[in-house]
Amino acid sequence: MKEKSKERPSNVSLPEYRHDSGEYMARYYQTSVNVTTKRLEIELKKTSAIFVSMDLSNNQFQGLIPEEVGQLHSLQMLNFSHNNFTSPIPTSFGNLVALESLDLSSNKFSGMIPSQMTKLTFLAVLNLSENNLVGPIPHGNQFDNDSYSGNLELCGLPLSKQCNNHGEAEPQAPSVAEHEDSQVPKFWQVVMMGYGIGVVLGLSLGYIVFTTGRPWWFVSMVERHLQYRFTNWIRRKKPRRN
């Protein structure tokens, strides 16, 4: 038995489907649309009801995302990036089991990543970067660091920052290289002080030599020192009498 649908414009392509329990007619509009998904902007031609995508990126939306979004079970691609959404990520997102791409980047989401999102087994692309998320990353599909960058209080794999017993990011201890670098300025301060004093004395002595020709006090001091060294050397070389 065929189900008769409402009339549509004659220039619209209307595909026909068959079902095991019988034959029926599924009629709907087909059109093309530009969609940003999986970090790429693509043009979808002849999209139909079996492909479901929501792209609200690059707007000025703010506040909370309604929990009702989690009831759109057929969603395959969801993009809320570059807005001003706040508050935690809705736990109802765990109901979007058909989701393949989720982009919530460049917002102001706070709180922890819902553990319910580990149910999204079809999720191939995830971007939660540039938010205010905190706490451990739920164990599930592991994505690269870029998926979580810009969230300074996130911890756990795949990030190098470990979580403490309270599920908070542990402060990173300064490395040996950083510790050594912190001591370098003090060392160079001492070196530069000695170098500066030497330069001042050298310039002063050079000025005296240049203006007076011979600094007699300096020459006399050097001569006395050389005479003393020479006298001691002669005494050591002189053979002892038995």
UniProtKB/TrEMBL annotation:
Gene Ontology, cellular component aspect: plasma membrane
Subcellular location: Cell membrane
Membrane topology type: Single-pass type I membrane protein
InterPro entries cross-referenced by the UniProt entry: Leu-rich_rpt, LRR_dom_sf
Alphabetical keyword list: Cell membrane, Glycoprotein, Leucine-rich repeat, Membrane, Receptor, Repeat, Transmembrane, Transmembrane helix
Signal peptide: none
Membrane spanning residue stretches: 190-210
Family under the similarity heading: Belongs to the RLP family.
This protein's name: Uncharacterized protein
Species in which this protein is naturally found: Hibiscus trionum (Flower of an hour)
